[in-house]
Amino acid sequence: MNTDELRAFQREILGGIPANLPAAFPRSEDVSHAPVRKDILSPAEKELALRNALRYFPAETHAVLAPEFAQELREYGRIYMYRLRPSQPVKARPISAYPAKCDQAASIMLMIQNNLDPAVAQHPEELITYGGNGGVFQNWAQYRLTMQYLSQMTEEQTLAMYSGHPMGLFPSHKDAPRVVVTNGMVIPNYSKPDDWERMNAMGVSQYGQMTAGSYMYIGPQGIVHGTTITVLNAVRMNDKTGSGPAGKLFVTAGLGGMSGAQPKAGNIAGVVSVTAEVNSDAAHKRHEQGWVDHVIEDVEELVLQVRASVEAKEAVSYAYLGNVVDVWEAFDRAELFVDLGSDQTSLHNPWAGGYYPAGLSFEASNKMMASDPDAFADHVKESLRRHADAVNKHTARGTYFFDYGNAFLLEASRSGADIMNTDGTGFRYPSYVQDIMGPMCFDYGFGPFRWVCASGEAADLELTDRIACEVLEDLKKEAPAEIQQQMDDNIRWIKGAQANRLVVGSQARILYADALGRMKIAKAFNDAIAADRLAGPVILGRDHHDVSGTDSPFRETSNIYDGSAFTADMAVQNFAGDAFRGATWISLHNGGGVGWGEVVNGGFGMLIDGSADAERRLTSMLHWDVNNGIARRSWARNEGAEWAIQRAMDQEPLLKVTLPAHAADDVIAEALK
Ligand SMILES: NC(=O)c1ccc[n+]([C@@H]2O[C@H](COP(=O)([O-])OP(=O)(O)OC[C@H]3O[C@@H](n4cnc5c(N)ncnc54)[C@H](O)[C@@H]3O)[C@@H](O)[C@H]2O)c1
Q: Which residues sit with their C-beta closer than 6 Å to ligand 1?
């Protein structure tokens, strides 16, 4: 790294919010920007928003900043403080580049930088990492102040982060988390989408999504793995004749942050896939990256090409540049049989750009959602009704349709679509967690463990891949039949990981593993650091979309059937339990994939440096971080989880979990007569 650039970067971090304001400079033209947010604040609330923004700055600068911030609020619906964007490139530099007093703080800086890297983040200048509204900070003053606090922090302090706002450094101790993050935690009665719009516009709350506000996003690779596992298992589940994936057709939508992984997963699974995308930039970006094979703009042409590929049993992916509703309707007219169907439009955010309604162009939608939000919402609802009708026609012919955790069924039902089951007690279609992820992965403790090599060296990632693979191959020898398929899939994934070239930003890897696998892999990394086989420490983490971290009745906990799917004790317990077992940072969020008010989720980051302390922490925390959720899933009488928690108790005598007794159907029926 160029030493002048490094010095300038460090100077800027140490300087926090500069005493002399940097000159104002316009938003960049060559990066994607967040949609203009709706004008929701009353005049009194606008005043508050402005006062709130100005409290980061000395009074003598207010005359300059007040009109500028007022203009941002008018023009974009938020105050991002564009003037405060850093002058040095925002990217994950090696851990040694950060001006910090402890490595733990430097590791958090590294991950913040990664989440805001323009190569990684969706709307980098609005500090949005993914999902349209998943923020790391609400404005650039918060970024600067947080980085400065991290540069000053010792191992006797903890930084409290309130929805992007650094409340300050508080005395703590070396085993405490260095940072405690909460995002969007609001009083439950004030958790409707407009409450987010209002509080976010006033600068007092933010939507942290899952790994955005918790600094644990690692680019699209995280999602490629999860999506591959889902599509692979969906194909296996529906392969009643044993003919395999060849010639099976998968139809879905979305080529955005996470959804962009679908065609790649389709290719890996060996099917023909069609992914509709209304945004030409998003579709072409995925095509240029080689994530989708062909882009087609004419729906009739699409029908012809897809039919030919199905007949030729090709593993190929098509992007349709247009609305997904048009694809479902055209395939119905053409009587083209669809084996698997889903949807990954951003319906967790239906009114502000997550879902583009059929019959309205992309450009017209973008205008209308800001200028006439009520009319836009009506278009969305009508489109969802049409969307569901078209899907229903296909499923009547045998298509297996599943909700991809994007709140499609939830929002379609709220729009009055014909999507409920016959007795009206639930949805007509399962979520991918109900049928696939839950019973096959989460109940057994398998989830998206991940790590980042803090040296920034590709050689470190390569060695950690090899170490992880060796650990899994060892574990597989003794693994019971129930988890053999999982072990096989993950060994194959890690063996192909280097060839798949999935690294964007930091040197990161994802791997589905259970509690034992995560602990053994992490310990092997710690040993390799101690033995100087790795050039630097390793940051452990996971997606929040996991066994224990997330309570989300329409997604992660949708396969919990004891009535507790709408409780959030598990996620909160997980956050608290990780905190005192050694996490370097922890986070708890309202929001996440399914929408504000619909989910509580949390996660952690942990720096391991080869020390005995690191080994103690990783063993204690990873064990809890997985087994907490298995215990809850077992208490809900999920068969796989009952098996998995018994196995965990056999392995660890200090673990004693309350197990459920099963009441016989006839006893219940008789008692309720
Ligand atoms: N991939 C996963 O494993 C996974 C898991 C759980 C949930 N999700 C959910 O999937 C959704 C998508 O995530 P993302 O990060 O890709 O979001 P994103 O906003 O980056 O991408 C969604 C894409 O859908 C496109 N789109 C919207 N409406 C459309 C329409 N009617 N027809 C065609 N294209 C349309 C948008 O232009 C956008 O590019 C989110 O709600 C997320 O929470 C994904």
A: 130-132, 223, 226-227, 253-259, 261, 276-279, 282, 323-324, 344-348, 354-356, 404-406, 593
